[in-house]
Amino acid sequence: xxxxxxDDGGWLLSVVKMCHIKGTINLSPGCYMLYLDAGAHxxxxxxxxxxxxxxxxxxxxxxxxHGDDLFTVxxxxxxxxxxxxxxxxxxxxxxxxxxxxxxxxxxxxxxxGLVHWPEYGQExxxxxxxxxxxxxxxxMQERLVFxxxxxxxxxxxxxxxxxxx
Length: 165
Description:
The protein is α/β, with parallel strands linked by helices. 44% of the residues lie in helices and 11% in strands.
């Protein structure tokens, strides 16, 4: 199981795909390719839920940061919060703990009452975890398009302009 967050160096996924590099970036976003090559069962997730205790410290556009999922997995939000958890915080905590417990026991994160989490493969399906869990395809696709299509065009324009001067 490997995960990414919106602020977790996930933008480097595009560099990994673009260069066909197979390695680990920030300990997770790129390593799923190594696991796939080895024939392992891979479950990729993007964790976007920001616990209330961190929201005042971050801009609104930042979802989760690196490691925020650990607060949920280990129930630390309830331990560190002086206030009672919101219903959505309790709910996501229970769901995430179930996914992790399931993968530790039978080897599949899926179970009763949980959104089905597909194995990562050619379809590039992964579980997006926020107040609702949703299956999505192609993690960080917008960033991949930017890095492989838009940015190279911008660089060429700049280089062309500098050459003309």
